[in-house]
Amino acid sequence: MAADMKPVPQPTPGPPPVAPAPQPPTDYLSKPRGDFLSRFIAWLIDVIILGIIQVIIGTIIGVPLLFSRIQAMRPFDMASRYSGASVLSLLIGIAYYVYFWGTTGATPGKMALGLKVIGTDGTMPIGYVRAFIRYIGYIVSTIVCLLGYVLILVDEQKQGLHDKIASTYVVKSQT
């Protein structure tokens, strides 16, 4: 029976698949820098998005208090509940900015206004480490009486203090 079996013809291999030609990266460094007003509006959009998330978290944490006997709840319990909500909101804010800057170069607010965060060396996206450093720069820019943001108005590269700390620019990606 084995002698009756004929070998199955194998297909002849074709040429190896050709990889698509690499596309030249967009030269983000040649794009115009994002101006103060468009960056401010983008920030407002992001703050509204994060505010909605915080209201949802506050509602989830606060509703059980409405149905509990508030008189029986100790002040420490209430404070720890709201402190936990504040920490959670902070972590969500950090994750929001770091994720979007690190992966796409733009938060939803920046996307809506056609802006991108790039490295001063032209890298985009900037990655999570540089995005986290930029977030820390946001805090520093705010601590010094918002002067870190005013730099955007006077700096020739339109960099805020947070941009200088993280070595980033904000550019108009749609021009």
Brief write-up:
The protein contains 6 helices and 2 strands; from the N terminus they run H-H-H-E-H-H-H-E.
Write the topology of this structure:
Layout: H1 36-67, H2 75-103, H3 108-112, E1 115-119, H4 128-143, H5 147-154, H6 161-166, E2 168-172
Antiparallel strand pairs: 1-2
Helix pairs in contact: 1-2, 2-4
Q: What features would you describe in this structure?
A:
With 175 residues, this protein is mostly helical. The chain has one domain. The chain has six helices and two strands. A two-stranded antiparallel ribbon has the order 1-2. Helix 1 packs antiparallel against helix 2 and helix 2 crosses helix 4. The radius of gyration is 26 Å and the shape is flat. The mean pLDDT is 84.
Features of this protein?
single chain, 175 residues, mainly alpha, two-stranded antiparallel ribbon, 6 helices, 2 strands, 55% helix, flat
Major sheet: arrangement of strands = 1-2
- How many structural domains can be distinguished in the coordinates? 1
Characterize the main sheet: 2 strands, antiparallel
The share of residues in extended strands comes to 5-15%
Compute the CA-based radius of gyration: 26 Å
Tell me the helix content: 40-55%
